[in-house]
Amino acid sequence: MTAPFKPLALAVGLALASGFAPSTASAASTPHATTAHKSFDVSELDPTIPPCQDFNGFVNAKWVAANPIPPDRTRWGAFDQLAEASLNTQHQIVEEAARHAATAPAGSIEQKIGYLYAAGMDEAAIERASYQPIKPQLAQIDALKSPADIAEFIMQRFNEGDGYVFNFGSSADFKNAKMQIGYAFQDGLGLPTRDYYLDPKHKEELEAYRAHIARTLALIGTREADAKRQADAIVAFETELAKASLAPVELRQPENQYHFVSLDEANRITPHFDWKRFFATQGVNIDKGFSLSQPKFFAAFDQQLARAPLATWQAYLRFHTVDSASPLLSKPFQDNHFEFYGKTLAGQPEQKPRWKRVLSTVNGTMGEALGQLYVKTAFKPEAKQRAQTLVDNVRNALKARIQNLDWMSDETKAKALAKWETFLPKIGYPDKWRDWSGLTIKPGDYFDDVQAATKFDYHYDIAKIGKPTDRLEWGMTPQTVNAYYSPTENTINFPAAILQPPFFDAAGDDAINYGGIGAVIGHEATHGFDDQGSQFDGDGNNTNWWTPADRAKFEARAAKLVEQFNEYTPIKSRPDLHVNGKLTLGENIADLGGLNVAYDALQAALKSNPQEAGAHIDGYSQDQRFFLNWARVWRANIREKQLILSLNTDPHAPAPLRAIAAPSNMDAFAHAFQCKPGDPMVRTGDKQVKIW
């Protein structure tokens, strides 16, 4: 589901991890680099670009020019290289599981993953089935006769793990984070955001979507004229939902993600959709209530139940049934789906090979089970303890920065430090793995297997409602090249796959490690004090722990960061397209705070190791190498359509800007590279942003 409060991740759209064994050196004092080991290859630097003018260009321009985007991707960078390598390792794991599935222990995760992957790779069987797997569902839609039938259909499909119109799942109660409650969340749109329906600048994408709907309906035998007429009705229907939907910037606000209601109150908002019956159908017992997170949206949904013609509802449900199932159906459906969502919206020239797409489905349905096999292959258990050392060092640096803030009162500092004390770092993989014994995967039935796994995951999730929050549970798989912070759990989480170069190098110097994984740790910890995380206390409750004066100072500083990013125009040919400083504010605060905290932690490490502190490696000081590795992490090529899509939807700024934005606010960067006031990489006076 779309989480009611999404974990705050380092990066998005980066699904899988590197297959290389992660580094295992102690982060507190890593060995000096030698001539035989290049933890940072300075030959990749471009000496024709002054670092004080364009630091991203200085570090990454040569690499970007030499590394075009593969045709089955929309971007290519440091994260993506690790993801690609991971795919190869995971490919070996699932291929091995498939080869031995029949003889594996009955009901083991090896057998289930093997059967699921093998079924997905049986293209002949999938082609023979065409769209037969969804015909029963399409027949149910054809048989609908009333708004009550529509509501009942939606409820029953949710119970199968197949949601329509809105999302539903569990999460911590914003007002009592120790307990899990249900969250109903806006959804139902086939385009990325409400603006794609309402803003004329997206007219081209809207018309392409209309054509995609008609083509999709034609694949199940709808006559061309009827398909076009239904497409018009579906676009009009979704436009009404879009009018009542909140924009991505609005959804960042906690007050727009949580609206607790009793069942009776919910039914008054949606008199044609009975929430008591919905929960009974899901097998969930609701006590005092749940979060109907966007009441305006659900009121609009109810109005559509009452007013929209039955034929429009049937067309809408029919299209989304086919569209969502298309990646699991025969080639015409797969190609049609990719043509719009891959090519038209994101500019991706080619589909990923079949094995990558099937592996993505395995990750999406049995990701933690695959992660259990992954860590046996690609992660040494002792790495958890060694990474813990670096986490502790960076967390201590954050504590010191909070204590020494000159703009925050002692009263608010005490609350901030209390929150800091309750941070729970989680490293590598879960201490306890999920139990998959209740999931049955049959050999040779891809669609039904995916549906079974999807239903199993859905009921695993909603079974948490009414139970205590488990802070030890993970929201990312171990094989994910990413990291995240959860505000309602107050946890910082570092999957196994990110604990490797260029983030963490066992044979590298301290500067490389603190400029990489150290800054990642600082980034996630700072999320606890960004514009969103700062609205939650150490227990994960959405409550104000600030004095009014301190909150005003914080928001004034954050507003300067909004202004900084609003000025960025990442597409040279489109100077009208700016980064959305409000949408990306949380990530930008985390980058700025995280890099400062990691720099402080590096200085503490070097203080205890004077020989390394004074050493130059390949002609660069430790401070310089710290910033060089930070920029290297964000090297990336991205297709223009994908970049435009990201500017509209992604709470992360484009990667090349992240390489320069935080350093440009740091005196330490200017000193390290002997930059002068007036250089593009030096922000001074009112333009310089300092928060944490």
Instruction: Report the C-alpha radius of gyration, rounded.
Output: 25 Å
Number of strands: 10
User: How much is the average pLDDT?
Assistant: 93
Structural class, from helix and strand content? alpha+beta
Largest sheet: 4 strands, mixed
Principal-axes geometry comes out as globular
> Share of helix among residues?
40-55%
What does this structure look like?
By secondary structure, this protein is an alpha+beta fold. It has 27 helices and ten strands. Strand 3 (166-173) and strand 4 form a beta hairpin.
Short description:
The protein is α+β, with helices and mostly antiparallel strands and 692 residues long. The chain has helices at 55-66, 78-99, 109-121, 123-129, 135-142, 147-159, 195-198, 203-218, 224-243, 248-251, 263-269, 275-282, 295-307, 310-325, 331-346, 354-378, 382-403, 410-421, 446-462, 510-527, 548-566, 585-607, 610-613, 622-633, 640-649, 655-661, 667-672; strands spanning 8-9, 75-77, 166-173, 176-186, 260-261, 290-292, 424-428, 484-486, 491-495, 636-638.
